Amino acid sequence: MTTAAPIHLAGERLMLDPMGALFWPEQRLLAVSDLHLEKGSSFARRGMLLPPWDTHATIDRLTLLLRRWSPRTVVALGDSFHDAFGSARLPATEVSRLNAMTGAHRFIWVQGNHDPTPPAGLGGEWIASFEAGPMVFRHQAIAAADAGEVVGHHHPKATVPARSGSVCRPCFVFDGRRLMMPAFGAYTGGLDVRDAAINRLFPRGGRVFLLGRDRLFSFDISWGSAMRAG
Fold it and tell me: What is the rounded average pLDDT for all residues in the chain?
């Protein structure tokens, strides 16, 4: 049984899913970040061969989330494709799967730094940021933003002690004003939560929600190790 963790941001109750997604019940809105589709094929073009199944695996996981939450709106928080030509390299079967999603839901593609132009041949809306009620969904955080900002970009991860040594996993970072999403893509790396690039966005500290198999593990941000996670 999967257990989501509730938080409150800008007066709204949100649910953090252990798969690395956000669900906003009142709006029936599901958000994911940093899918980096076709990262494997991008690396292959540069001579670095990876198994070419990352897009299929990521879309499989997104399909499970859509079944679990039945959202009305889906927001992909930028870097949905690993590069500006990623959508053109999608296998036809994955194009069909994504277009089935964009046909069944209002699908918002938020612009990221890896994918600054609209994805070719896919449905959905392509915008710089998305606002709903008191919330704003964008790829990169704005330091002086009002409360209610949901962002991605940094791929936060945290390392915690475990019986066998330590465990490093993607995580959410939350301080009551801003929520940073973990990367959702199969081939995405990560940045430690205590790195300066993340830490400056949470100057008063915050909580980490580490992704587990069926639940999230919450602890103060200072618990995470200071190492970078690959």
Answer: 90
